[in-house]
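B., you asked whether I could sanity-check this one before it goes into the benchmark set. Here's the sequence:
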Amino acid sequence: MRVALHSVVREGLEDGYDSTHATIPADLVESFARVGIHDWTIWRSGRDLFHVVDCDDFEAAMTALDSDPANARWQDMIGPFVDHFETVGPGHAGLVVPQVWRLSEQD
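And here's what the prediction gave me:
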């Protein structure tokens, strides 16, 4: 599955976010593989971050990462740069931006 997320960087911390996020720790890469995250791409426009996550099951992966030590260390490092995630509902499912259209799925 592929999902999109939208988060916002704290004002004035854009460059710090970019440089901190240039490389994620190897143990987090291993955790992503273990929980079924195959790729994660982030674009930034101003303070807005747009994520595309390719994974087996987004909610299951996020739930598994909730108790993952590598993810906890990463969140301690990157968390201060992130103001918030835009949500459309509760829980991990609420992070997913609803898809409107995709060319490859058009009849």
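One thing to flag: Residues 20 and 68 are 20 Å apart (CA to CA). Otherwise nothing jumped out at me.
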